[in-house]
Fold:
Amino acid sequence: MIFYVWDKDGNIKLVETTLGDVRPPPSSLEAINNPDESGVLDLPVTPFQGGKIVGLETLTSHDLQLVVIARQPWNVQLYSYEMNESTGKPMLDPLDQEIHTDRSEIVACGLEAGQNFWTITKSGYFEIRYLPPTAADEREGGRLIKSFNFGPNVGACAVRLHGKTIAGNHEVAIGGPGREVEVWKFAGTVKRKDPEASGVKVTGSKVSSDDGEKEMHKYTKIWSAQTNKKAGKWGLAEKVDVTSVKFLPTADEKLTRLLVGTGSGNLRVYNTSGSIRRAVVNHKVSENGMKKVLALPASSQSGFEKVDFSVVYCDNVKEDGKEGKFALFATDKGKDMCVYKGSPVVRDMGYMNNGRVFSLGSDGVLRVYEENGDCVSSVPVGQGFVGDGVRVMDEEDPEPEETGEDVEMEEVVRGEKEDEENYDDMDGIVSPVGKKRKGGNVIVEDEDDFKRPRTD
Structure:
């Protein structure tokens, strides 16, 4: 398993781990006396501009492994993941940068259908970019950037595509401090002059502008949540503060449900397909506000009874010395199914297609859990490195290493095909230690620096 990990200053590391790789946190005496940072590699990256990373996503376009990063205050940056020929180590090579049109602070971003990267600012200005996967797609539709202004007070956003590109039907859900959840539906395009800015684009040191008309998206608001008016009348209503919003997976195209986290520590589910505007599920799960919520489909739940879906969440602890909460919540039972232990405060978290959950803790440790709460990997990300975000790059574990005579035989066979693999099979992801990942195969000159004994 390989992860991208970054800190608040935008520095990025690659962290590789395997099942059973459990090490002490960097603050322990054992880790201080015998530091083990094998599998942790600084990833050289020179940002065009900006610092704090809002989000990082990986995709493939024109047979390149790309990384697209949204940085505050208003930068969208595109890099290629490559091996440095002189060092034999991976790096991010800057390709392009664009300034968000309204030059307001980016608060959320995401990747849909593998090629559609969207960003939204706190002022409500939304941009979605289609990055063509092949040269043929580039010729047909080209690289598209569409925008729309949903209005101010946005802190969370989600996008649901019905096809593979932004040209088809899709919905956008938004919410934020003082703004209840709303769902907007794509209603075509219109040409108009951008009232916010001149469309400045930055590519390296080149700057150009377009003061003419732009083809922009149109959206129509089709649903919004409703607060409890009686509770509001008596001063008992919760303060409106949407901190996280996600579209729930569904096989029915006509059915739309939203998973929402609030600043008061509630998990809510809304059915936005009909006229009901109140939450159909509303549970207070923490005294702190929700930092991030993710829905796990029922198909991934191997350790529990099958339910419609469950929710992985972490709260937003603001008091020094106070521990946060990181747990799996069952909506049908109305309670936590398990609590993921280890990190005092979770800075970021996510889940993989195999059902495992991962987190980056304030103690500087990247942890991987089975869905039932068992920690199967625990790796410090480096002394003095205060992590702020994490994304999975490769979910797969490397093949078990052979021992004895079988290894010698395998080495002979591999040696015969080494040249062919190195040059003809370079379209996949490359491990920082040169191991083959989904088709990629690169030889690292100094591989021993990154090896460690396997424990699984």
